[in-house]
Design a protein that fits this description.
Length: 114
């Protein structure tokens, strides 16, 4: 059973930066596609960034501001978020974007507010 543990969220002012990390149990980070999702209050969960076979894909709303990466030595998937906006406020989760997803972790709250 793969476990996902997200961390790194917090309160940041508009224009600020945060780096999220997702610890993935088992040595699978290097061989599977992974993504970062977010869910804002009252909205559906959406995929904002994905990394598969070295190729990245981003939602239009975060393109140019967010960067997804893997650390194979630490079995983590990271999301560098720059130029944060209030509309980025959400709970952020990681998971594989493949049809057979893992059990969701608890997520990490990101709040962008002055």
């Amino acid at each position: 059973q793969v476990q996902l543990v997200e961390s790194g969220g917090g309160l940041v002012q508009p224009g600020g930066s945060l780096r999220l990390s997702c610890a993935v149990s088992g040595s699978i980070v290097s061989i599977i596609a992974m993504g970062w999702y977010r869910q804002a209050p009252g909205k559906q969960r959406e995929l904002v960034a994905a990394l598969s076979s070295g190729l990245t894909n981003y939602a239009d709303s975060v393109k140019g501001r967010f960067t997804i990466s893997k650390d194979r030595a630490k079995n983590t998937v990271n999301l560098q978020m720059n130029s944060l906006k209030p509309e980025d406020t959400a709970v952020y989760y990681c998971n594989t974007p493949s049809p057979r997803q893992f059990a969701w972790g608890q997520g990490t709250q990101v709040t962008v507010s002055s």
